[in-house]
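HUMAN: You are asked to prepare a plain-text protein record giving the amino acid sequence and the backbone structure tokens, both parts labelled.

ASSISTANT:
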Amino acid sequence: MKQLLKIKVNNQYYEIYIEPWKSLADLLRDELNLTGVKIGCNEGQCGSCSVIMDGKLVKSCLILAPKAMGKEIITIEGLGNFDQLHPIQKAFIDHFAVQCGFCTPGFIIAAKALLDENSNPTEDEIRRWLSGNLCRCTGYVRIIEAIKAVSKNK
């Protein structure tokens, strides 16, 4: 039996009926069409499904959608758009931190959560923070450079 879920996603309020077993990642992708939330492993290991929930970085594949009742969620779609990129998105482009792009939304959301918490992290702090995000294409060097560049500009 479906349950009513009231949730705020990217500054928009939703009231939606969902199955209680559905993950937050599935809700965001399937019901709200926010496909920037990727599902890479469905086990919380890769970070591709990362979102910010009530100011904290979470892996949306590990959270049952009903647990998001009354919460505020930010996905990659809530950061910027084609006409005005978020500074982190622009830094990823400027520093060539994007390869295939599958993991990029998760990295950008993780970087935003880090910089919201610590506006001038050290390289070691960035590396530790990103340890929950996996990329098969890059050596992480350019990703770290992009985040460092944004942190210096804050």
Q: What stands out?
A: The chain has two domains: 3-76, 87-153. The chain has a mean pLDDT of 94. DSSP finds five helices and five strands in the chain.
